[in-house]
Amino acid sequence: MIGAGVAYYDKPPFLREDYDFFELLDPELHSTRFYSLLLFAIARANGCKTIVEIGVMKGVTTAILARAAKANGGMVHASEIDADRIARAKERLAAHNL
Asked: What's the rounded Cα separation, in Å, for the pair 12 and 45?
């Protein structure tokens, strides 16, 4: 268990972030908090630098994967055929400097 008194670098990488991870989530998606944190943790812990996502929907997972890839020194490549979904995902990424 990680508590006060544990050195910064003794914590797993996904717990060392200096931002509010849940600001990336969409309030309409109530069940995604745990799964999004899990997805982020897996990408960070494995050091994923190149991530490919097929279908962006609202861009929530795109933003989470982009945050993890950016922290690992990489990027996300996303594919979508719906122009409205692409626009929403771009807005979400731009709002979070991703």
From this structure: 8
Calculate the dihedral angle through the C-alpha atoms of 49, 54, 59, 65, rounding to the nearest 10 degrees: -20
pLDDT at site 76: 94
Tens-place pLDDT, residues 15-44? 555 445 556 566 555 556 778 888 888 999
| Rounded Cα–Cα distance for residues 80 and 90 (Å) | 12
Q: Is 54 exposed, middle or buried (0-12, 13-18, 19+ CB in 10 A)?
A: exposed
Is residue 23 within 8 A of residue 52, CB to CB? The reply is no
> 82 falls in which pLDDT band (50, 70, 90)?
very high
Residue pair 16/8 in contact by the 8 Å Cβ criterion? yes
CA distance 12 to 41: 9
Which pair of tokens denotes residue 34?
């745990």
